[in-house]
Amino acid sequence: VRIGLPKRGPDGKPVLNEKGEPEIAWQPKLAASCVTAVADGMAVDTLSEVVGEVEVGEVELTPLKEAVERKKDINRSLLALSRILAL
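^ that's the sequence the OP posted. Answer follows.
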């Protein structure tokens, strides 16, 4: 997700756009929504094109990550079994 906070003026108050809405200072990098702490006034963008492109890439990599983790689990199990059989 893309996250940001309202821009603040020298007086500490939010800077408003012509519609009277707070202007958002977006973070330069995208963040993982599952580990991002919520802050008061935080804006969260899940619908922009740049976020969508990253989500598609993440979905494509997820099965690969799961396969790697399963292989690691199998290797750990085989190592434990070989230690037991060696006793």
